[in-house]
Amino acid sequence: MLSLPPSARIYICHQAVDMRKSFDGLAAASSQLLAQSPDSGHFFVFLNARRTLIKILNWDGDGYTIWSKRLEQGQFNLPKAVGDRLLLDLRDLHAMLDGVKPGAYYKRFSQPSHSH
């Protein structure tokens, strides 16, 4: 489970990225593909073409960190895109990492309607 500082934003790149990239390559992709400063403290999410590998790049103040996950089966389900760039909230990122499909959100409880 990832936890983020309240000021951090999560950007997802919808263009497939070569997952041989490491710190410098993903930092360059943050600038080129997402038009964001890689040392901003925000989190940048990248996927390979088959959506079986994800890498998350972050600058933590004195260096880059990368978090990665490779699926043995299935694919990561992308949230619905808005243009070339999408800003995610932490709940959406966790849902994506846990394999929840974007259309599968539902309320666990709803108030019964009162008709008089």
Automatic annotation (TrEMBL):
NCBIfam families: IS66_TnpB. This is Transposase. It comes from the Bacteria. Pfam families: TnpB_IS66. InterPro entries: Transposase_IS66_Orf2.
